[in-house]
Amino acid sequence: MNTFKWLLKREFWEHKGGFFWAPIVIGAIIVSITAVSLVFAVTGLRGGMEINGVPVSNLAQIVAPDQKAKFASLLFSMYKGLLVPFTVTLAACIFFFCAGALYDERKDRSVLFWKSLPVSDSATVLSKVAIAIGIAPLIALVIGTITAILAELLTMIAAAIAGVNIFGEVLSDPNTYLVPLQMLAMLPIYALWALPTIGWVLMISSWARAKPFLWAIGVPLMAGFLVSWAGKMFRIEGDLGWFWQNIIGRMLTSVVPGSWLIQQGHSLPTEETLRASSAVGEMLAQSLQLLAAPNIWIGAIAGSAMIYAAIRLRRWRDEG
């Protein structure tokens, strides 16, 4: 267990820039842009502006007391929106991390040093898997949540300065505290769903002699184009859309958080029909329903098989 912890620390420190500092920088940029935007908005409002031809200098003029709850609910929509940059960055970092995880150590011959230590190939590869499906998503979610809280806090302060105090409505709403927990509850779903992409890219990383990223992307795309070409050329009956979605899509895009909702045909809740807080709860309910579908388990088994293949390839493939 101590060895595995040491391996996790090694992977984290070697890739701290992508898994820790990148979300920190994104969060700082988002908070800074939010703060500057709110300063300009409050300054412009106090300087006098017109809305539908009516002069407005105070937010209370356009937000009635009975509308404060609805105004506060707009803050929950910020939570989902602010997490998008973190999810995109996370998916890219995980894909590149897995692509180089086993290839780079062969390229610089450091694999010989690591194999001289009393550390098994299984523990080494599984530590990389644990970083990709557990630690990195958790870090991104925590930093994203802190960013959303700071952005919402700045918005509430700006609203109070502009004449509408919504602190009471926000802090008394149970969803203020439930939404982060609901997002956290989706991490196990993500871990299972992401296994096909992680397993595939790690297997390519342990096999490729050069450019594992291009191999990881190019082989599935080429296979998809060939199957589509053969289907049209020989007029083979079949659902090519299913092949692209459940085979190619799962191999390449499963590391994108929330991609299971789109690939399973669920429509993402919108603010027109749901409050964002309720939308997150609906997303969680749809995600939990996925556990009863064979798709996620077949993908997890296939991903696990490819991870096992990566372990075997690392054991015997030492050349760069």
Describe the structure.
This protein has 320 residues and is an all-alpha fold. The chain has 14 helices and two strands. The chain has helices at 2-14, 16-46, 68-101, 103-107, 110-116, 121-161, 167-171, 175-185, 187-207, 212-233, 240-253, 259-263, 276-289, 294-316; strands at residues 49-51, 54-56. Strands 1-2 form a two-stranded antiparallel sheet. A hairpin with a 2-residue loop joins strand 1 (49-51) and strand 2 (54-56). The two termini are 30 Å apart.
Instruction: Name the poorly predicted regions.
Output: 268-277
Number of E-state strands: 2
Shape, please?
globular
Oligomer: single chain
For the largest beta-sheet, the strand count, sense and barrel status come to: 2 strands, antiparallel
Question: Total number of helical segments?
Answer: 14
Radius of gyration: 24 Å
What structural class results from the helix and strand content? mainly alpha
β-strand percent reads under 5%
How would you state the average pLDDT, rounded? 83
The helix/strand series, from N terminus to C terminus, equals: HHEEHHHHHHHHHHHH
Helix content: over 70%
Order of strands in the sheet with most strands: 1-2
- Terminal-residue CA separation: 30 Å
